[in-house]
Amino acid sequence: MLSTTSLSEALIKARISKRLSQTEVAEFVGVSQSSYNNWESGRHCPSLRHFSKLCEILGLSSPDLLRISA
């Protein structure tokens, strides 16, 4: 099972590699910067709908993002 910590680390790594701010990602996904920050800090996990949008902006497929976080 995917841990919240590994997903948060993968989100940070992918976002930084794309040179995007938390605000830019949050706006694209359709959530507040605070909500996105909760995902990166491991306090919450994105819904499947949001996960799909995250993959889109980060240029990764779902399996790729899950592989990064495994």
TrEMBL record:
InterPro entries: Cro/C1-type_HTH, Lambda_DNA-bd_dom_sf. The keyword DNA-binding applies. Residues 11-65 form the HTH cro/C1-type domain. GO terms for molecular function: DNA binding. The keyword Hydrolase does not apply. SMART domains: HTH_XRE (SM00530). Gene3D superfamilies: lambda repressor-like DNA-binding domains. Pfam families: HTH_3 (PF01381). Keywords: DNA-binding. This is DNA-binding transcriptional regulator, XRE-family HTH domain.
